[in-house]
Amino acid sequence: MRPTPSALLLPLMAGIAAVLTLAIPLPSFAQAVTACLQCHGAQTGRGEAPVPKWQGSVHADNGISCHDCHGGDPKDIVNAMNPARGFLGVPREKAIPAFCGRCHVGIMREYLRSAHGKALGAGGPTCVTCHDSHAVKRATIDLINEASCGRCHPYARAVEIKEAMRQTEGIIGGIEKDLTRLRNEGIDVEASEKSLFSLRNTYRRLFHVVDTARVKRESGTIQQELGKIRLSLTQIDERQRIRKIAGAFVVGSLLLSALLLHLLRRTYDDASPPGD
Ligand code: HEC
Ligand code: HEC
Ligand code: HEC
Ligand code: HEC
Ligand code: HEC
């Protein structure tokens, strides 16, 4: 029987739809169009400059927009920048840690206690010196580099703290890779992901103390905790391996019995008299 056109069309359309969904990954937060973005995006120079920088940032990816930092009313084009609508304007240098620290509370606390925080307004770096204000990217240990950390003092003291962090960062990176692999295999690793997430936060916050001795001390404790996650992943891998071997065994036995059955049938057919 020839398939009807609609019987051919349906799977074809379903196929196209599947390819399209795969090809266009939607961001987890759609970037809402606000009055701020509309007006600033249409400006030139100083007013427009933050828009493209922000667009590629970790904040844009997580739905943190102009008004989340600067305040104001994102729905009212006329009163958007009215202080009565909560517009905060541009923070002065000394106000920047509190400006970012509204959301990054723990980091602000560590920073304010550090040699950097104590030198705030007197030659010390603020959050935006190291992270930028609009082009903020996911933080990695590579933020510690000569161009950034050699601006105010010898780079040597930055190298010392970077070396102290490298090993732990390496372990974190390795576990992250394994978690991605296991997740792609369809295994539930949520509990491990949660523990890693909180350890990683604690660890990266620690950098802001810029105290090499303390980083070394706390790295030991954190590496012990990371060791526990590592162990549970090794156990998952081991279980998977056993499951795969068992699976292969079952498939092998099925094939073998099918073959035996086939041979048996042939023997039986050959044995039966013709024209029966
Ligand atoms: C109708 C147009 C318009 C809208 C809407 C608008 N802005 Fe502005 N904004 C401007 C102009 C014009 C400037 C001055 C730019 C310059 O200096 O070149 C400005 C300046 C700013 C500044 C710098 C202020 C300063 O003191 O230097 C910030 C921050 C800012 N806008 C944020 C926002 C935020 C956040 C929103 C949304 C809640 C918003 N804007 C909505 C037009 C607008
Ligand atoms: C993560 C918080 C954050 C977000 C989101 C953010 N800004 Fe800013 N913005 C700042 C900070 C902090 C400064 C002050 C930077 C400095 O002093 O170096 C600033 C400065 C500015 C300035 C003044 C720049 C200058 O040259 O003096 C303008 C204009 C501005 N922002 C507009 C915007 C617009 C428009 C958006 C949305 C596209 C936006 N900002 C999103 C934190 C933010
Ligand atoms: C309104 C809340 C808010 C403000 C204000 C804010 N942030 Fe964020 N920030 C976030 C959120 C939400 C994320 C994404 C969280 C995540 O996925 O890790 C983020 C992520 C980040 C990251 C990347 C974290 C990582 O995992 O690597 C950095 C760096 C960062 N912010 C720096 C800043 C700086 C610097 C400022 C001030 C200029 C600032 N933030 C102001 C909410 C905020
Ligand atoms: C805007 C200038 C500036 C930048 C950029 C800067 N620092 Fe500093 N740093 C200071 C000042 C000021 C101090 C405190 C006074 C001093 O010890 O010289 C300091 C102190 C330190 C200390 C000693 C802390 C202590 O308790 O003795 C370390 C470590 C350090 N910085 C690391 C870094 C690293 C790593 C970077 C880059 C990610 C960096 N700094 C970028 C200005 C800066
Ligand atoms: C001297 C440079 C410097 C300053 C000043 C600084 N940071 Fe960082 N920040 C870093 C570095 C380096 C890392 C990454 C550490 C790592 O990967 O181990 C980082 C990591 C982060 C993270 C990611 C933490 C996580 O859980 O992954 C956030 C968020 C952040 N900083 C926000 C801030 C805020 C807010 C301020 C101001 C209160 C600030 N930083 C000041 C250099 C700096």
UniProtKB/TrEMBL annotation:
Record keywords, A-Z: Membrane, Signal, Transmembrane, Transmembrane helix
Can the keyword Signal be found in this entry's annotation? yes
Cleavable signal peptide: 1-32
Q: Which InterPro entries match?
A: Multihaem_cyt_sf (IPR036280), Multiheme_Cytochr_ET (IPR051829)
The family database entries (Gene3D superfamilies) matched by this protein are listed as: Cytochrome C3
User: Which positions, given as ranges, span the membrane?
Assistant: 245-264
In terms of PANTHER family, this protein maps to: C-TYPE POLYHEME CYTOCHROME OMCC (PTHR35038:SF8), DISSIMILATORY SULFITE REDUCTASE SIRA (PTHR35038)
**Name by which UniProt lists this protein:** Cytochrome C
Q: Which organism is it from?
A: Geobacter pickeringii
